[in-house]
Inverse folding.
């Protein structure tokens, strides 16, 4: 899950590597998470790079997901993606 991958923050390349995503997948998945305020994007204008980090709302979502997983309420998708 992309939210779990951005818990400690990371660049696009680091996240793509950890989550096993290609560039097109990264673009498709990261935009909705940013627009829903589950992940924040910090853009560095000096080198035009971005850092992505799970927000407090994203942390709460992951916690709720994990609790549901414990009770069999969510799918068995591992959060270590």
């Amino acid at each position: 899950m992309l939210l779990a991958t951005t818990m400690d923050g990371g660049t696009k390349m680091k996240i793509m590597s950890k989550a096993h995503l290609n560039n097109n997948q990264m673009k498709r998945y990261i935009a909705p998470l940013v627009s829903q305020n589950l992940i924040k994007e910090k853009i560095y204008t000096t080198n035009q790079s971005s850092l992505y980090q799970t927000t407090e709302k994203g942390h709460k979502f992951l916690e709720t997901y994990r609790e549901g997983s414990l009770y069999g309420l969510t799918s068995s998708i591992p959060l270590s993606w």
